[in-house]
């Protein structure tokens, strides 16, 4: 008697379908990096900079399991910097607004007549 145990042909399991391959998330890291670069330009617009940074950070975290992990980390860092700048700018803007600084501001001083 041999050490190997084989099933008769009738009892052999059917060929099962292969498991779905892991999704390639390299696009998430690249998109996070691109959003980080865009975010460094539009951080002073609170309604653009903040949401772009949050989306970029989420995509960067999703892309950490991809082969281009460095690009995902760079995207997370750039988006975190952009989010921080956007939050600081929003706080400064609303504090100046509430203090009445804009009430005394004359927008016509920039036009030469």
Secondary structure layout:
Layout (H helix, E strand, L loop, with lengths): L25 H17 L3 H17 L6 H31 L14
Tell me what you see in this structure.
Helix content is 58%, strand content 0%. The chain has 113 residues and is mainly alpha-helical. Helix 1 (26-42) packs antiparallel against helix 2, helix 1 (26-42) runs parallel beside helix 3 and helix 2 (46-62) packs antiparallel against helix 3. It is rod-shaped and about 95 Å long. The mean pLDDT is 82.
Strand content range = under 5%
Alpha-beta classification: mainly alpha
Q: Order of SSEs, N→C?
A: HHH
The overall pLDDT, averaged over residues, is: 82
Shape: rod-shaped
* Annotation field: number of helices: 3
Main sheet characteristics: none
Query: Uncertain spans, ≥5 residues at pLDDT below 50?
Result: none
| Distance between the amino and carboxyl termini | 107 Å
Spatial extent as radius of gyration = 27 Å
Helical proportion? 55-70%
Number of strands: 0
């Amino acid at each position: 008697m041999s050490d190997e145990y084989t099933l008769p042909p009738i009892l052999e399991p059917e060929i099962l379908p292969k498991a779905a391959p892991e999704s390639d998330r390299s696009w998430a890291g690249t998109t996070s990096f691109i959003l980080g670069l865009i975010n460094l330009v539009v951080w002073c617009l609170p309604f653009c900079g903040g949401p772009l940074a949050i989306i970029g950070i989420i995509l960067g975290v999703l892309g950490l399991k991809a082969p281009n992990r460095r690009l995902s980390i760079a995207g997370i860092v750039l988006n975190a910097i952009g989010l921080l700048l956007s939050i600081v700018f929003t706080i400064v803007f609303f504090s100046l607004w509430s203090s009445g600084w804009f009430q005394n501001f004359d927008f016509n001083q920039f036009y030469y007549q």
